[in-house]
């Protein structure tokens, strides 16, 4: 490119430079920019070439603000920072001032353009007045913020400046604060409660006490947040692994929804004559499979039953889990289950039922049960319940059929089951070995070793225990020696029509004409309907599933060693075969 063409580009460059920040190339090389005298080591042609590249880049971005063009261009230039200098064309070093003069901008804007966030740049540095207001606002909000279970910070619903006891105008708005600190901070809803005893107690200690007690409580709270984040990261990693078709892990989360939208009849405008206590509660449980669909990252299997139809115990939870497994087309050898910490999900019956699955299944070889920290168990299942509640608050549902059809119309719902079979596993409690303090732990691993069901545990969710090789030296048997879980076949539990019929009679008396004859028949049909699939049939459906991932072989070490030995017999150079260490 000739000098005349480069000078032509420089004339066009003037319209892209900042006002009063444009300097001709001859003035730039003639003025001192720093103590290293960068202007003595750079030629005028180098400056012209750099500006020509800028003009060519800007010509491709039509109808784009000049500020955006400037930020995007500097983001594409390869810069190597070395002792406060940047290397530009032909690896010639230039200081910050020289770099800003070449591209026609102020020194502060050049610094802002290199903070790694080009899309949200400010037009200048922050003034000291703004810095002081920002510091005071963060200090005051630290006394009111609460830790969100899914990350970020929450403010009370009734939060305002008067609560902070600060002069009017001295508080920075929350919307502006988010842009500066780049943090998820918002005002929580009135119905969202943080029930973690550790968080609330330590926060109260920090606000009430002083000195060493306050410092110790702050360190404990910081460690608690770090632990919760580690726990949440472990579960997210397991969900991503479960979505991989080549992995051997299948993750299922189980939880139940209970709020004002899980009661029938569901009416947008409900008269006062129909009290909330008169409505029939609907037990809505979800088994969430971490598996990609066309539009969602989870498959949600929703089970509905009227209150009183079944006894809500460990047998009911196990029955839902077995039904979900029978509907999955691919199951991995390692089954990971996530429950909340209620007593129903920590009983000996639940653990015994899972070991029955291990004894009868040829696909499932290992089961890991995880319980999140109490108060921070808000996960993707609860987010699914939020989607359901948002939909249910906008419709009228007078009977279970209307309720189920509404759930089926939601994209995140994969299947709605009304006639699921409930089995009775209560007999297992007499055959399991009772261990003191076992249910206080948060992680359990069940596996079949030498024709015996054994379990090992960890106090909290530990990613090392999930992914490392299992060591069952500290494991314990699940059942008594006289019991064989492979010969256990639970009976089908029939629905309790008496309790549900009494609730329905009271509802008909209160609602009157709001329930048509068809609605009443739908209630009666739902009460009398129950699943009749035998447990043997359910196990066969699970066994007919496709094995997901690699097969877990008990002799996998011997298999790997035999492969190496086979290759050596064919004169191939292989890695050294692993051997047991010998103590001299």
Strand content: 5-15%
Residue share in helix: 25-40%
Secondary structure: number of strands: 20
End-to-end distance: 76 Å
Total domain units: 3
Give the number of helices: 20
Query: Measured on Cα atoms, how large is the radius of gyration?
Result: 33 Å
Biggest pleated-sheet summary: 10 strands, mixed
Instruction: Provide the structure class.
Output: alpha/beta
Taking all residues together, what is the mean pLDDT? 81
Spans of 5+ residues with little confidence (pLDDT < 50)? 80-87, 116-124
Task: Assign an overall shape.
Answer: extended
Description:
This is DUF7869 domain-containing protein. Pfam families: DUF7869. It comes from Caenorhabditis angaria. β12, α13 and β13 form a beta-alpha-beta unit. About 3% of the residues have low confidence. Strands 7, 8, 9, 10, 12, 13, 14, 16, 17 and 18 form a ten-stranded mixed sheet that branches. Strands 1-2-3 form a three-stranded antiparallel sheet. Strands 4-5-6 form a three-stranded mixed sheet, with no helix packed on it. The radius of gyration is 33 Å and the shape is extended. The protein folds into three domains: 118 residues, no CATH class; 67 residues, no CATH class; 300 residues, no CATH class. α12 crosses α19. 40% of the residues lie in helices and 15% in strands. It has 584 residues and is α/β, with parallel strands linked by helices.
């Amino acid at each position: 490119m000739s000098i005349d063409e480069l000078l032509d580009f420089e004339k066009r460059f003037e319209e892209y430079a900042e006002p009063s920040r444009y300097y001709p190339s001859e003035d730039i090389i003639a003025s001192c920019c720093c103590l290293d005298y960068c202007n003595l080591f750079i030629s005028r042609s180098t400056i012209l070439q750099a500006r020509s590249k800028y003009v060519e880049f800007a010509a491709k971005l039509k109808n784009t603000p000049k500020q955006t063009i400037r930020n995007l261009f500097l983001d594409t230039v390869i810069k190597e920072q070395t002792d406060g200098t940047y290397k530009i064309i032909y690896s010639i070093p230039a200081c910050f001032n020289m770099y800003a003069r070449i591209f026609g901008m102020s020194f502060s804007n050049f610094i802002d353009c290199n903070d790694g966030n080009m899309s949200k740049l400010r037009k200048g540095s922050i003034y000291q007045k703004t810095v002081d207001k920002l510091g005071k606002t963060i200090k005051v909000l630290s006394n009111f913020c609460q830790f969100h279970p899914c990350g970020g910070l929450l403010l009370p619903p009734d939060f305002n400046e008067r609560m902070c006891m600060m002069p009017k105008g001295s508080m920075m708005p929350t919307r502006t604060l988010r842009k500066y600190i780049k943090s998820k901070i918002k005002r929580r809803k009135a119905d969202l409660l943080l029930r973690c005893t550790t968080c609330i107690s330590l926060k109260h200690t920090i606000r009430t006490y002083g000195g060493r007690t306050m410092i110790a409580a702050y360190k404990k709270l910081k460690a608690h947040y770090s632990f919760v984040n580690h726990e949440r990261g472990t579960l997210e990693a397991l969900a991503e692994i479960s979505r991989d078709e080549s992995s051997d892990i299948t993750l299922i989360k189980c939880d139940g929804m209970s709020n004002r939208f899980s009661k029938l009849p569901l009416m947008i405008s409900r008269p006062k004559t129909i009290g909330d206590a008169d409505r029939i509660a609907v037990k809505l449980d979800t088994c969430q499979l971490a598996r990609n669909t066309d539009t969602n990252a989870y498959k949600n299997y929703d089970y509905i039953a009227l209150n009183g139809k079944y006894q809500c115990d460990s047998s009911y939870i196990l029955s839902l889990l077995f039904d979900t497994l029978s509907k999955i087309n691919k199951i991995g050898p390692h089954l990971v289950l996530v429950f909340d910490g209620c007593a129903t999900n920590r009983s000996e019956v639940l653990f015994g039922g899972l070991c029955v699955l291990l004894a009868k299944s040829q696909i499932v070889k290992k089961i890991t049960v995880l319980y999140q920290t109490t108060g921070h168990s808000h996960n993707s299942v609860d987010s699914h319940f939020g989607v359901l509640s948002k939909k249910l608050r906008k419709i009228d549902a007078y009977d279970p059929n209307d309720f189920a059809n509404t759930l089926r119309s939601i994209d995140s719902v994969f299947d709605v089951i009304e006639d699921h079979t409930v089995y009775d596993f209560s007999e297992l409690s007499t055959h399991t070995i009772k261990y003191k303090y076992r249910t206080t732990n948060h992680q359990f691993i069940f596996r079949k070793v030498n024709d015996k069901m054994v379990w090992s545990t960890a106090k909290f969710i530990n990613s090392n225990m999930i992914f490392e090789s299992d060591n069952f030296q500290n494991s314990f048997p699940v059942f008594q020696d006289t019991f064989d879980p492979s010969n256990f076949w639970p009976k089908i539990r029939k629905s309790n029509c008496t309790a549900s019929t009494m609730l329905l009679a009271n509802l008909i008396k209160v609602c009157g004409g709001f329930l048509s004859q068809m609605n009443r028949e739908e209630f009666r049909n739902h009460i009398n309907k129950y699943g009749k699939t035998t447990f043997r049939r359910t196990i066969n459906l699970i066994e007919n599933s496709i094995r997901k991932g690699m097969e877990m072989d008990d002799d996998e070490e011997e298999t790997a060693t035999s492969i190496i030995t086979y290759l050596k017999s064919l004169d191939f150079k292989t890695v050294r075969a692993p051997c047991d260490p010998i103590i001299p």
